[in-house]
Amino acid sequence: MARRIRSGERGFTLVELMVAMAIVLVVLGIAVPQYNKAVLRAKESVLRQNLFSMRTVIDEYTYDKQKAPQQLEDLVKDGYLRQIPFDPIAGNNTSWKVIMEDGASSANQTEPGIFDVKSSSPKTSLEGTPYSEW
Question: Which of 117, 131, 120 is nearest to 40 (CA)?
Fold first, then answer.
């Protein structure tokens, strides 16, 4: 080591650089999939919360108005929501899959409305169930 410094040769050898790069690549190979899974888990959590909120608001609207909303925009227009929640899996707030209630089982049988909402995403969750079934 002393001989390298005296003769003016400084720096790392090619082998040392290769070993350092291999260690960095192994760490990245472990960290990136974990990061992606954590991001997906966070999106799933937001989706669950948004679905819960919308279902609760639909029930409140139906109870208060004695009829179900005809479209999601009715919830915003009547002040039950500030805006339609974002679907983090589908990537927008306009493609919710709306499930209408049956005319026979609706509160106001002349105007059946929205009974439930689901994600429109065809993707599958980390649990193995499709998001469109949540």
Answer: 131
For residue 11, give both structure tokens: 């720096």
Q: How many CA atoms lie within 13 A of 49 on its CB side?
A: 9
Amino acid 112: pLDDT: 84
Rounded Cα–Cα distance for residues 14 and 18 (Å): 6
If one counts every other C-beta atom within 10 angstroms of the C-beta of residue 16, the result is 10
pLDDT at residue 90 greater than cutoff 70: yes
Q: DSSP label at 90?
A: T
d(CA 120, CA 110): 28
> Does the pLDDT of residue 109 top 80, yes or no?
no
Compute CA 17 distance to the chain's CA centroid, rounded to the nearest angstrom. Answer: 40
How far from each other are the two terminal CA atoms of the chain, in whole angstroms?
64
CA-to-CA separations, 107 to 28, 34, 65, 66, in angstroms, rounded: 56, 47, 10, 6
Domain boundaries, the chain: 44-133
99 membership: H or E segment, kind and range? strand 97-100
